[in-house]
Amino acid sequence: MTRPISRRAALAGFGLAAASAGCLGRTENIAGRDPRSQLTLEINTTPADGDPNGIRIARQLEEHLTAVGIDVRLNTVGQTDLWRKVLVNQNFDLYVGQFVETEPFDSDALYGLTHSQFVAEPGWQNPFGITEMAVDDLLERQRRTAGNDRSDAVDALQETVCDLQPFSVVAFPDALTAVQGARFEGWTQDRQPVSVTGLLGLDAVPDADSAGDGGSGGGDTTADDDNATSSATAGGADGEG
User: Fold this and answer.
1) Is 179 helix (H, G, I), strand (E, B) or coil?
2) Number of domains in the chain
């Protein structure tokens, strides 16, 4: 007798186990007695006016899945409804969305995202439904160690998560900001204003209003060069996945 194949297993076979929690937890026989049974997957994302990159990714994914014989339903919902569906109700097959983080974050951020102890918790605590002992062990080891030992644990953790693919990082849009060095100060490597609150946190240069009137600016500044204008890129800005 043919062994039943779950939708989760089918996704893993395609390397698309990104966001495969929720209703994929309910095993369905797609081979069984009727080998012609159609595999159907729903992709959830926000509409183009909410996230133009997300809908493009979702449509490309829809095209690829359709090409291999999967019946794909693309469902666009508002941002609030998407997070309710994914993070609270955990009722989804696949979704395309943003993990918004404008500041570089420590690898320990993966603890809440992928540790099995959070599998039943709502929100950003393991919304992907991953339960893997090897991941748990590495997450705990990187918390207990430091220096090279922690780096080795983090490297192994990232490789394991990439192999399992509970989610797939598709793109890293750049966070771009610029500031006039003659008017504001406080932009350093450790204090990069790559968010609205970061820009508000800059310090005004004394008498900047009088010094800057009618001039060409006297030099725009970035984190790398006080006399040149370029862009600042946040290490983990708005990852699409």
Assistant:
1) strand
2) 3
Residue percentage of the chain with pLDDT more than 90: 34
| Alpha-helix residue ranges (DSSP H) falling in 128-177 | 133-144, 147-164
Pair 208, 117 in one domain: no
Residue 240, in any domain of the structure: no
pLDDT score for 223 = 45
User: pTM of the prediction?
Assistant: 0.57
| 137 lies in the same domain as 190 | no
Give the model's pLDDT for residue 108: 87
Give the list of residues 6+ apart from residue 21 with CB closer than 8 angstroms, or none: 90, 92, 127, 128, 129, 130
Q: 91 or 103: whose pLDDT is higher? A: 91
In DSSP notation, 62-116 reads HHHHHHTT-EEEEEE--HHHHHIIIIIS---SEE--EE---S---TTHHHHHH-G
Instruction: Specify which residues 203 forms β-bridges with.
Output: 185
Q: Does residue 38 sit within a domain?
A: yes
User: Domain containing 161: what range?
Assistant: 101-166
pLDDT digits (tens, 9 = 90+) for 148-171: 999 999 999 999 999 998 888 887
**Would you call 45 helix, strand, or coil by DSSP?**
strand
The reply to whether 81 and 133 lie within a common domain is no
Last residue of a domain, one of 98, 116, 143: 98
pLDDT value, residue 119: 85
Name the DSSP class of 227. T
Q: Distance between CA 174 and CA 235 in Å, rounded? A: 9
